[in-house]
Amino acid sequence: MTSQRYFFLILILGSLTALAPFSIDMYLPGFPDIARSLHTSPEKVALSLSSFFIGISAGQLLYGPLLDKYGRKPPLFAGLAVYIAASVGCYFSTGIEMLIAMRFIQAVGGCAASVASITMVRDIFPVKDNAKVFALLILVLGASPMIAPTVGGYVTSAFGWQLIFLILALIAIVITLSVIFFLPESYQPDASYSLKPGPIISSFLVVIKTPQFYTYAISGGIAFSGLFAYISSSPLVFMDVFKVSSQVYGWIFALLSVGFIGSSQLNSLLNKKYKSGQIVNAALIAMVVISALFLVGSMQNILGLAGTIIMIFLVLCCVGIASPNTSALALAPFQKNAGTASALLGAFQMCIGSLVSVGVSLFKSRSSVPMALIMLVASSAALLVLIAGRRNIKGGIQALDAAFAGH
């Protein structure tokens, strides 16, 4: 594979991966304006974020079997079409209930991009390179938290929050055209793959029962929820508690994203000296310690704006280091049913993320304590799952091809 082709593949796959996060990050600075415009509260507006997470969680499971049955592109195009239509629906929303519903549909369509991109990594690149490729995708993904909130803040101030959703529709159209003209089909349709409920459930169960998958998918998903805790809480913490403007919030969000993105790029160096499992273990231990310090500092009210930013930055660094490795390790045992495995991996992450975002909205405390508490609980639980699950991994991936036969 030439370096130029490698670059374009990473760019397109990264853009597909970034579509859902961009859809989240870009409208966050508009929360106060959306609340005023739709005559509701910022907490109610946050439910449109929760509905988006729920939509992604449900949609992942829908697209996994479709990608294995019909190839990667047809289900991807269908999902992108739904996403574009729902984005226009968000633009025309006249009440918070309509916005919440449209965001759910937007997520169901947009998650096709996430599942397809992860699946194609497993299709196109050797297993030993997957962690490095996922780290590169996070680099492209980094455009979302660095650009989206800043652009969203300025668009909201100048033109109103509704225009954000037309911009998202336009971005999806550009991505669709890029896939049509520059991204090859990486997997031929499998006529033998059944879409009947029984075989689909059976295929999901085979994946879920694989120790290497459930250990790293669940531990990685729980750790990744620390990122969702930050995303869900940050508008309240920074704009409500610390009273920063939507533009300044956008810049803070971009700055903090450097921790997540930059740390993910360390994997290219770390993977040369350490195994992915060792890297995950160290990252989760560090995340537990940092989250505990963050919680103590928040409860004692001694961090201030600068201290809060530093603690969040360090937690996101841990997530950025762990995430590419947990994804690569979870998908490593699978080839024939990579779409099913990728869908389940994404569903674990987004399902946990949706629960976290709903949980954050239930806290009445106007401080960074809920964010820090959830980060500590998430990192501790992820580490415990990792320690318990690794005992079952050895010898747990044999006979997968036989188990998948006929599905």
Automatic annotation (TrEMBL):
Gene3D superfamilies (UniProt xref): Multidrug resistance protein D
Main location: membrane
Keywords: Cell membrane, Membrane, Transmembrane, Transmembrane helix, Transport
InterPro entries associated with the record: Efflux_drug-R_Bcr/CmlA, MFS, MFS_dom, MFS_trans_sf
Superkingdom: Bacteria
Localisation: Cell membrane
Domain Major facilitator superfamily (MFS) profile: 9-393
Bilayer topology: Multi-pass membrane protein
GO biological process, any: xenobiotic detoxification by transmembrane export across the plasma membrane
GO cellular component: plasma membrane
GO molecular function: xenobiotic transmembrane transporter activity
Transmembrane segments: 7-24, 44-63, 75-94, 100-121, 133-155, 161-183, 213-233, 248-267, 279-296, 302-322, 343-363, 369-388
NCBIfam families, A to Z: efflux_Bcr_CflA (TIGR00710)
Similarity comment: family membership: Belongs to the major facilitator superfamily. Bcr/CmlA family.
Name of the protein this chain belongs to: Bcr/CflA family efflux MFS transporter
